[in-house]
Write a structure and sequence with these properties.
- Strands 3-2-4-1-5-6-7-8 form an eight-stranded mixed beta sheet, sandwiched between helices.
- The protein starts with 7 loop residues before the first helix and ends in an 8-residue tail after the last helix.
- It has two domains: about 100 residues, SRP54, nucleotide-binding domain (Four Helix Bundle (Hemerythrin (Met), subunit A)); about 200 residues, P-loop containing nucleotide triphosphate hydrolases (Rossmann fold, 3-Layer(aba) Sandwich).
- A hairpin with a 7-residue loop joins strand 7 and strand 8.
- About 50% of the residues lie in helices and about 15% in strands.
- It is an alpha/beta fold and about 325 residues long.
Length: about 325
């Protein structure tokens, strides 16, 4: 099917993952018409690793694929492509309860290093929640990066969310205190907190996040809590390293993966979900307000590997 005929977010996902798909497709060329033997599996595993799916995830996928092929009695490599897509989708399954906060409300802390699209993702996620009828407040607790408050202010306006902020250099926990009280007073459904991305100094970051958590526990005890880490897909394995480091200083409950439209190694999403056992909850494939959506493992795997999605530029 022509890309032009595809619509909605899946169409944008296909377009966004075109670099990754072409990278994989060029490697897969001829593989699915070859003999289904050990060489086939070895070559396929190498292709998966090269797509930044990661060694552990690739080995697990190949092991499951071998088992399914044997179970189904498949003899032809051409029958394996759809099976591969289904297995990868299964490896990245996101439990429906992962999105409970969208309906039930809660406090969402968003972390990530500078430059990954953290503030932009908060604005887009706020817009997505507003579309669902949620009342959203944003807390500008990244008070140290120059321009961060202004950037979040711009995105809050675009998303139609309320922004709570103080002056640059203010105590982030004080901003969160104000935001929590504003959320209670305005009966907001979701409070999202933008935090500083100072991973180079783990001790400071850990102290800062711990203080924010203490204030939240005191002012809004029992509130549903989420901690999302924003990762830039174009950084490949470095995104995996960042996720590991941040998970050491905060209880990460989900991943927002950005800039999938700018990388030839979108398979990093599979590596992250597999190696950290943290679900990818949202993905971004563009700069527009609506270009952040819930992660759909089936659509993602199909967009990566389904040859029916390839078309002429």
């Amino acid at each position: 099917m022509d890309k032009e005929k595809k619509s909605g977010f899946f169409g944008r996902l296909l377009n966004g993952l075109s670099k990754t798909r072409k990278n994989i497709a060029s490697s897969l060329s001829g593989l699915f018409s070859s003999k289904l033997d050990d060489d086939f599996y070895e070559e396929l595993e190498e292709i998966l690793v090269m797509a930044d799916i990661g060694l552990q995830a690739s080995e697990d996928i190949i092991e499951e694929l071998r088992g399914k092929v044997k179970e189904l009695g498949l003899k032809d490599a051409s029958e394996v492509r759809k099976l591969l897509v289904d297995i990868i989708a299964g490896q990245m399954k996101v439990d429906e309860s992962a999105y409970d906060y969208e309906e039930k409300g809660g406090v969402v802390m968003v972390i990530g290093v500078n430059g990954v699209g953290k503030t932009t993702s908060i604005g887009k996620l706020a817009a997505l929640l507003k579309e669902k009828g949620r009342r959203v407040i944003l807390a500008a607790a990244d008070t140290f990066r120059a321009g961060a408050i202004d950037q979040l202010s711009e995105w809050s306006d675009r998303a139609g969310a309320v922004l709570i902020s103080q002056s640059e250099g203010s105590d982030p926990a004080a901003v969160v205190f104000d935001a929590l009280n504003a959320a209670k007073a305005r009966k907001a459904d979701v409070l999202m907190i933008d935090t500083a991305g100072r991973l180079h100094n783990k001790k400071n970051l850990m102290d800062e996040l711990a203080k924010i958590n203490r204030v939240t526990d005191r002012e809004m005890p029992g509130a549903h809590r989420e901690t999302f880490i924003v990762l830039d897909a174009t950084t490949g394995q470095n995104a995996l390293v960042q996720a590991k480091q941040f998970s050491e200083v905060a209880p990460v409950t989900g991943i927002i993966l950005t800039k999938l439209d700018g990388t030839a190694k979108g398979g990093i999403a599979i590596a992250i979900a597999k190696e950290l056992s943290i679900p990818v909850k949202y993905i971004g494939v563009g700069e527009k307000l609506g270009d952040l959506q819930r992660f759909n493992p089936g659509e993602f795997a199909q967009a990566l590997f389904d040859d029916n999605n390839d078309s002429e530029e």
